[in-house]
Structures are given as C-alpha cells and as structure tokens.
Amino acid sequence: MNFKISISAIAMLLMGSAVYAQDIDTTKTRELKEVTIFSDRPKRYNDTLTEVSTRIPTRLLDIPQSIQVIPQEIIKDQKLFTLSEAIKNIAGANASTPFQDFTMRGFSANSNNYSYNGIRGEVFNYNQQIPLYNVERIESIKGPASALFSNGAPGGIINIITKKPQVNNAYNFEFTYGSWNQFRVMGDATGAITKDKKLLYRVIAGYENAESFRDFYKTNNGQLSAGLTYLFSTKTSLNLEYNYQFNNNNAAYDWGTYVLHDADGKPDYSKTDLSFMSTSPIDKGENNSNALQLDFRHKVNEKVSFTVLGLLSRVTLDRQGHSGYGSHVSANNDSIVGRDYETHLYKNNFNTVTAFATLKANTWKIKHTFLIGGDFVNAQNPKNFYQYSSIAPSLSISNPDYSNDNPSNYTFDFIQDTKANSTIIGTYIQDQIEFSPKFKALLSLRYDTYKTINEPASSLNSTQDVAENNATNLAPRFGLVYQPISNLSFLRKLLSVI
User: Fold this and answer.
1) Domains and CATH numbers, the chain
2) pTM
3) Tens digits of per-residue pLDDT, 37-68?
4) Highest-confidence range of 148-152, 243-247, 355-359, 400-404, by mean pLDDT?
5) Which of the four pLDDT bands, split at 50, 70 and 90, describes residue 494?
6) pLDDT attached to residue 7
7) Secondary structure of the chain in the HEC alphabet?
8) Please, what's the b/e burial string for 305-344 (b: 16 or more CB within 10 A of its CB; e: otherwise)?
C-alpha cells in the first residue's frame, strides 16, 4: 500500500510541475548568480621515487627493473591491516599462506626475501602476520635482487618502509570493530622534543584481539614502535627505531578442515562444519620479536654522501600443538585418524650492518652516479628444539572430544635440538649512467662470501653430525632504459643473477 501511495504522490508532483510550466511568461528573463564548482584533483596512487633497487633515490622510470610501490594512500583507503592483504596489490605477487609466505613470478619466498628499511634480516617469525601499524609504504622488486641484497629466491624482494618522526606535531587514533568480535586499536604521535626542532620522536602502538569462524581459535597481537631522529644539520641525520611485537594464538597454525564423502564416494561439503579444527584447545603459539634499527646519513656536498644502516633483531617462537595435517579419515567416514603433536622452541638473532658511499661525476657529457658499499650479516640460531609425536588421539569430526588430548602421555618419534650460525660478508659497486635524457644504464657487481655451521645443541638431537658450508658468489647486473617521452620507459635487463 505504501508503494502505491508513493507512486501516486510522485505523479501528482509531476502534474503540478507541468501545469506551472505552462504559466511561465517567456517574455521576461532573469539573470542567475554565478555558480563556482570546486573539485579536488583525483588522488594518484603512485610514488615516483624509490631506493629499493639502487640505494639511491631514483625515479622508477629510470631503473631497468620491474618495481612497484604501495604508498600510504592505498594502505589507508583500502584499510589494509596486514602485509598479506597489501601484497594483493602487487602484480605477479600473491600471499601463498596466511603467514609470511608469498609467491612472486611463480617462485615461492619467505622471510628471507623481506627487507626492512632497506636492510635484510629476520624481524618476524614465519607464522606471524606482519601488521601495518607503523608501515609507511611497501616496495617490491620483481626478479633477482642479489646485486644489492645477496642470496634470496629469484622471484623478488619485498621492502617494508616504516613511518619516521616528523617535525610538526601530529596525533592519530583509530578504532575498528568487525566480524568475529575483532577489536583493533591504533595510536600514532609524532613531533619535536626540543625547541630547535632537531630532536624528533614518533611512537606508534597497535593492538588486536579477535575470534574466528574456527572453534577456539583466537588472535591476540600487539605492536609498539618508537623512533628518535636527531638532525645535526641539513646535511647530517641519525634515526634510531625500536619495534616490538607479540603474537599469541590458541594455535600457531590453522590447518584447515576435512571434506567427507557421500555413499557414492563423492565429496559432500555439507557434512563438515567449517568451525571444526583438528588442533586442540590446549594448544598455543607464542611469538615475540624485538628489532632495533639505525640509519645514519651524511651529505658532504652535492656530489658525495655516506650512509650507514644497522639492524639488531631477536625473534622467539614457543609452539605446542596438535595437527591433523597429513592424517586420514576413518573407514566409517566420521573421524580423523593419525593426528600428531609437535612442540617447537625457536630463537633467532640477526645482526646486520650495511654501509655505502655515493659519488656523482661527469665524463664529458655522460653523467655517473657511483655507489660503493659493503654488508656484514650474521644470523645466530642458538635454539631450534623440535619434537614430533604421531600418536595423538583420533578426533570425531561431527562431535569432537578433546578431553583425551594429554601430551604427557605421548611418546616422541623424532627429536631435533640444533643450533646454527651463518655469516655473509659482501661488497658491491654500482654505476648509474645517463648518456642523455632518453638513454640510461645501470651496471653493478657484487661479491659475497658465505659461511654456515649447523651443529647439535645437545645429546637429544637425532644425529651428532656437524655440517659446515663455505661458498663465494659473484653477482653482476646490467640494464638499459630508453625513454622516448618523459612519462614512458622501455626497460631491458640484459644480465642479472639470483
């Protein structure tokens, strides 16, 4: 009835307007006031400068390598909370697991293919979601990147740039509430500490607590980021940044659920509740990470500058969990047989120093920007204790009973207790050449030495063998750029290795 009345009312209004229009005196005119319409320029989601591939601020169009940048505007407008969500914006890249794994150009990569503010290092555990509370932008190099970053998967590198202290005071607070009782809060404060505005600070804190569509699977994580910048002069600056993150879940991994079959042997997806988990309510997955970064830059003049980057990180994992991964469904199609139980205590220390100098010079009309530098990377794994048991109780899928899950009754089939130490020392030289505004080239050469020792940490380890590896590697890179017009480049990488 309401719908009919609304239609009738609209018809009456239209008829009234038509009658009024017939009574207008067309011999008279009326001058209207000027109307001005203002509109903002459409937002552009692109950064034109990057240091990820050359360590020198360079236009993306001038680099003979495929590079994509996810700026802060995309992170804000898409409400991205984790790196896995952000990676979807990178062409040719995809998060392959709910954790740190991603694929780029068909190659799988993990934490070894991340860098933070241009420094390689393990800042988060494999099973941690990387939050974006303190992230300014995300850069990706597609293809081999060993010329500057040493060893890694050939698919590419993802570089995370964090937010830095600002001169002007600014404060930001965000709160979100979503499905499955997801509660997330974030605060950001920055500004000058001293009156001369030489000492700056920035503090960012974020916290999330959420349930899941899976039974008893909860997320509880938080992050604290604190940064100090001291501006000695317009040519010299020092930035120190500390990041702490914890991630405590009921289970370290969500192993998925099971598909049962009907009487004809065909999959019947309705038989399994998606909330079912093969893990147990007594499981846990605790992660803690601490990272301290240093960034010192000095500009001698317009042609010469120096940079020193440093990273100290400490990462720990304490996992105890049941799993139905790799098990099978019983003959009567109602329970999981072959659950296992694992404990994993993992600690890793990462120490990295990168130093380089840049020099601009001309030979006739050809412009050169030279980069000479070196890296020292030391990864210490003082604790890698792992136990595996294959006798965890079976579990009904339709009516799970976890009361029999008691690890004190299990015997372990495999025990690993090892420690490792790896060191990489590398040197590199690079030349960015500009033959003309249209023709440019990039040449670089890197030399690395590797040393890795893996040995038992106790008599519990299955073997007492010591494995030591020593290697060297020479990584060249050569590419050309042709720019027929100012906003178009044709890139050709003639040589690059992983």
Assistant:
1) 165-496 (2.40.170.20)
2) 0.84
3) 876 666 667 777 888 889 988 988 899 888 99
4) 355-359
5) low
6) 40
7) CHHHHHHHHHHHHHHHHHHHHHCCCCCCCCCCCCCCCCCCCCCCCCCCEECCCCCCCEEHHHCCCEEEEECHHHHHHCCCCEHHHHHCCCCCEEECCCCCCEEECCEEECHHHEEECCEECCCCCCCCCCECCCEEEEEEEECCCHHHHCCCCCCEEEEEEECCCCCCCEEEEEEEEEHHHEEEEEEEEEEECCCCCCEEEEEEEEEEEECCCCCCCCEEEEEEEEEEEEECCCCEEEEEEEEEEEEEECCCCCCCCCCEECCCCCEEHHHCCCCCCCCCCCCEEEEEEEEEEEEEEEECCCCEEEEEEEEEEEEEEEEEEEECCCCEECCCCCEEECCEEEEEEEEEEEEEEEEEEEEEEEECCEEEEEEEEEEEEEEEEEEEEEEEECCCCCEECCCCCCCCCCHHHCCCCEEEEEEEEEEEEEEEEEEEEECCCCEEEEEEEEEEEEEEEEEECCCCCCCCCCEEEEEEEEEEEEEEEEEEECCEEEEEEEEECC
8) bebebbbbbbbbbbbbbbbbeebebeeeeebbebbbbbbb
**Residue 168, token pair as written in the block:** 């002007």
Locate 287 and state its tokens: 């992660």
Supply 39's token pair.
């509109």
